[in-house]
Amino acid sequence: MSIPDITIYNTLTRKKELFEPLNPPHVGMYVCGPTVYGDPHLGHARAAIVFDVLFRLLTHLGYKVRYVRNITDVGHLENDADEGEDKIAKKARLEQLEPMEIVQIYTDSYHKSMDMLNIRHPSIEPRASGHIIEQIKMIQDILDNGFAYEVSGSVYFDVVKYNASNNYGKLSGRVLDELLENTRDLTGQEEKNNSVDFALWKKAQPEHIMKWPSPWSTGFPGWHLECSTMSSKYLGDYFDIHGGGMDLLFPHHECEIAQSQAANGNDPAKYWIHNNMITIDGQKMSKSLGNFITLEELFTGSHKLLTQAFDPSTVRFFILQAHYRGTLDFSDSALQAAEKGLKKLLNGIELAKKLIAADASTSDISKLKAACIKAISDDFNTPVLISNLFEAVRITNSVYAGEEKISPDDLKMLNSLFADFTTEILGLSNDQNQQGDELIDPLMNLILDIRQASRANKDFATSDKIRDVLSKLNITTKDEDGGASWTYES
Ligand code: ZN
After folding, report:
1. Which residue ranges does the chain devote to CATH 3.40.50.620?
2. What's the angle, vertex CA 35, arms to CA 33 and CA 36, rounded to 5?
3. C-alpha 185 to ligand 1 mean position (Å)
4. Average of pLDDT values for 311-330?
5. How many angstroms does the Cα of residue 47 sit away from the middle of ligand 1?
6. How far apart are CA 172 and CA 166, in angstroms?
7. Coil, strand or helix: which one is 17?
8. Do residues 258 and 292 touch, judged by C-beta distance below 8 A?
């Protein structure tokens, strides 16, 4: 595919802009990853899938994308006012484990779910705790430039002073005077000059476990700092795309911009992209409302709001059916509808491979292809792309039924359209998670035939061995009248 004009809605400028990489064909992309103190949930899935599609699209078009997605393993406190316990340290205390054991458990859990959702691995996945030296250096730069102050071993960013020469709020649209008005109460954060100031370094209390020496105290970095240091380390001081969920827009991303400007006089990124949130039956997802659904619960159907287990590819398709900037309301029935829709799409792809071409076409496939390219290039409009793919399925079914005809060239284009857009860019395919692979089915039939034959010959050693090995592989066999069948439980 030649490179089309891509437009991106830039949160920073609040308008759609033509995507022009700073240093083509290279593209630097940084996306805020998870704080690893719990199992990944639907919110994690949406952010990861949205930026996976962007990564896939740009790579497919020939860009050399360096995609950095971090793991937050230190410094994320329980509230945005830099108070409360570190989320990971708290979980470690409750579970009586080392903080790094918590980090390992939930990083593994995150990776497992992301693999099941067919999300490509980022190019680099740095951890905050592995970049303490870089964070100390950046704090020093901000102090040297006069935009931070030290109090009793902690260092805070001076938002009011920064705003005198810069625009704090330019990303989120917040106005500093209003923020000061609304958060005048400094209870519990008396060290700060102003309530809007945020921590760059916090002195650790004696009982605090994750702490490092620094010029100011033994302590730990503020949460916003890691993304500023890791993005500039791997992508440079000014790179192409910075992404994340809309919940990170303020204060996290606003503070990232302030830190970069204060340290080196640069905005960190040219394009800021934010995906919207997921609601559950119209409500915000929260533990207190009992509607907090982890991906594990979705894939196994073990949550009380679910009537069945859902395949990861169904969850992926469900998320891509909505535009990334719109809210997406999740429900059991919406997922069931997505399951049917995906099945129809994937069946269409399989059927298209079997079509027989005629001398001429009755549908305009090149026009359909152009519509697919236009949709994905227009601020990654996946719902419009999917509706065009369903039109391709409709044509496929009509040709198969003999109601329409397709030329050899158009048939080739139809199949490559499915391969490019459905499999490659949207990352939707059957073989990822489901049984019934082209090779597996005949092989399993052969094994079951041998087992049947050995039983008929009273060679129970062989038939028992086959059953035991299959059972170890989580494959259950069932003998039926016409032969044997099998199921696989992952
Ligand atoms: Zn971040």
Report:
1. 22-275
2. 110
3. 27
4. 97
5. 12
6. 14
7. strand
8. no
Identify the burial level of 170 via C-beta atoms within 10 angstroms of its C-beta, where 0-12 means exposed, 13-18 middle and 19 or more buried. Answer: middle
Query: How far away, in angstroms, is 137 Cα from ligand 1 center?
Result: 18
Residues of the chain with CATH 1.10.730: 279-429
Report pTM. 0.87
- Please tell me the distance between residue 256's alpha carbon and the centre of ligand 1 in angstroms: 8
What is the CATH code for 22-275?
Answer: 3.40.50.620
pLDDT in tens, 29-48: 999 999 999 999 999 999 99
Query: For residue 467, which phi and psi values (nearest 5 degrees)?
Result: -60, -45
203-232 pLDDT tens trace:
998 888 889 999 999 999 999 999 999 999
Q: Is the Cα torsion angle 454, 455, 457, 462 positive or negative in sign?
A: positive
Output the CA 252–ligand 1 centroid distance in Å: 6
Produce one character per residue of 440-471: b if its CB has 16 or more CB atoms within 10 Å, e if not. eeeebeebbeebbebbeeeeeeebeebbeebe
Q: Are the C-beta atoms of 202 and 191 separated by less than 8 Å? A: no
The alpha carbon of 93 and the centre of ligand 1 are apart by a number of angstroms equal to 25
Report the separation in Å between the CA atom of 276 and the middle of ligand 1, taken as the mean of its atom positions.
Answer: 16
The model's pLDDT over 229-284, given as tens digits with 9 standing for 90+, comes to 999 999 999 999 999 999 999 999 999 999 999 999 999 999 999 999 999 988 88
Secondary-structure class of domain 279-429 per CATH: mainly alpha
